[in-house]
Design a protein that fits this description.
By secondary structure, the chain is α+β, with helices and mostly antiparallel strands. It folds into two domains: about 15-100, no CATH class; about 105-190, Sandwich (Immunoglobulin-like), CATH 2.60.40. It has helices spanning about 15-30, 40-60, 65-105; strands at about 105-115, 120-125, 130-135, 140-145, 155, 165-170, 175-180, 185-190. Strands 4-1-6-7 form a four-stranded antiparallel β-sheet, with no helix packed on it. It has a four-stranded antiparallel β-sheet with strand order 3-2-5-8, with no helix packed on it. Helix 1 packs antiparallel against helix 2, helix 1 (about 15-30) runs parallel beside helix 3 and helix 2 runs antiparallel to helix 3. It is rod-shaped, with a radius of gyration of 35 Å.
């Protein structure tokens, strides 16, 4: 009886790391252009890049056979990372623009004209209005405002004697709102931008 020696079994290359890198990079690339959700993409594309590079190294050493998938994983991970970096610059530019506009001071002119007597005038920034009773028109007030609504508000209400009133808000030399009302207890309300 002859004894046969078994052939050594061939080691099957494992492709898991390269596949993992590709999947992470692809999911990260899909999430990366979505505002706010794209924050999730950062760790996905970085891990996808690392796993794909490790997968490519394993292919070169003969421990894996998924060279194409590892290279594709590197490409989609790098692209996803580039999109994430672009979003950082876009988001920072938007925040800087909003901050600059919020802190900018605008010259605002509130003006009321008409023939009404004893009108109530409410004007100023939206969260900090000023109230005055004006015995005769025309009336004008120059102020400086900050915030989103630099023009603030201007509301004019006639008394029981009626008459007509026109309100006008001018911000940095440009008229942004004009309204007219007439009659008893009529209200003209202007809102600046």
């Amino acid at each position: 009886m002859t004894q046969q020696t078994p052939y050594p079994s061939a080691v099957v290359p494992r492709n898991g790391i390269g596949i993992t890198g590709f999947v992470l990079g692809l999911v990260g690339l899909v999430f990366s252009p979505i505002p706010f959700v794209g924050v999730v993409a950062w760790p996905l594309v970085i891990l996808g890049l690392v796993f794909s590079i490790v997968g490519l190294v394993r292919v070169k050493s003969g421990k894996a056979t998924n060279k194409g998938l590892s290279i594709t994983g590197i490409a989609v991970s790098a692209l996803g990372l580039a999109v994430c970096i672009v979003w950082v610059f876009v988001f920072n530019a938007a925040v800087d623009e909003v901050n600059t506009e919020l802190n900018r001071t605008a010259k605002v002119s509130y003006e009321v004209t008409g023939d009404a007597k004893n009108v109530d005038v409410v004007y100023g920034e939206v969260l900090n209005p000023v109230n005055e009773t004006v015995p005769a028109l025309p009336w004008n007030k120059e102020v400086e405002n900050k915030g989103f609504y630099k023009g603030g508000t201007l509301t004019v209400t006639t008394s029981e004697t009626g008459g007509s009133v026109t309100c006008k808000i001018t911000v940095d030399g440009a008229v942004v709102s004009t309204k007219t009302a007439s009659g008893e207890f009529a209200t003209a309300a202007c809102t600046g931008k």
